[in-house]
Amino acid sequence: xxxxxxxxxxxxxxxxxxxxxxxxxxxxxxxxxxxxxxxxxxxxxxxxxxxxxxxxxxxxxxxxxxxxxxxxxxxxxxxxxxxxxxxx
Length: 88
Fold this sequence. Notes:
Order of helices and strands: HHEEEEH
Oligomer: single chain
Strand content: 15-25%
């Protein structure tokens, strides 16, 4: 999720060859809905990593305290693997 316009967001995604779906959020509607912190003293939006199941429930949420405070890929993939096990 990013604060840019849809066109700018798509261009960034293509330029960086990011292999997953991103969500432009120029009006901050989704950021507010998930209570993503904005701290102007720490470069803007704080990291928020969520895993949402197919029914729309948040199964994992990590609210970062700084721009470097993000969960490991192993943590995120572990949550996703558990959800996949439950759905099969």
